[in-house]
Task: structure prediction
Amino acid sequence: LAWSVKPLIFSWNSRMTAEWPRGKVQKLSVNETAFELSGRQFQYRPGQVRHFTWEDGTVQTVQSIQKNVVWWSTEHPHPAWQRFRWVCTPKCQVENHHDMELTDSEGDGYR
Result:
């Protein structure tokens, strides 16, 4: 039995995987107004560009959306925390049982 994977279309109402260049990975539950990370809820701030503020005051702002990836930037003083991405995470095709694992098919160094 072979499964074909349909291309993902970006949606703010989905499960996502946050990825940082140095290898940190976090699962997120995302919707139009907020996201949940490790049981904590973060609200997007009003404005023309989607953004929010972390507890330490760091502002995270959407830079672009490409296919199923949203690229973010911050003005954090640590360079490794200034640009990263959230990827829409596909679900298992058998009754959406679990999130599927992502691989670094583009070879961009995030995984």
Q: What stands out?
A: The two ends are 29 Å apart (CA to CA).
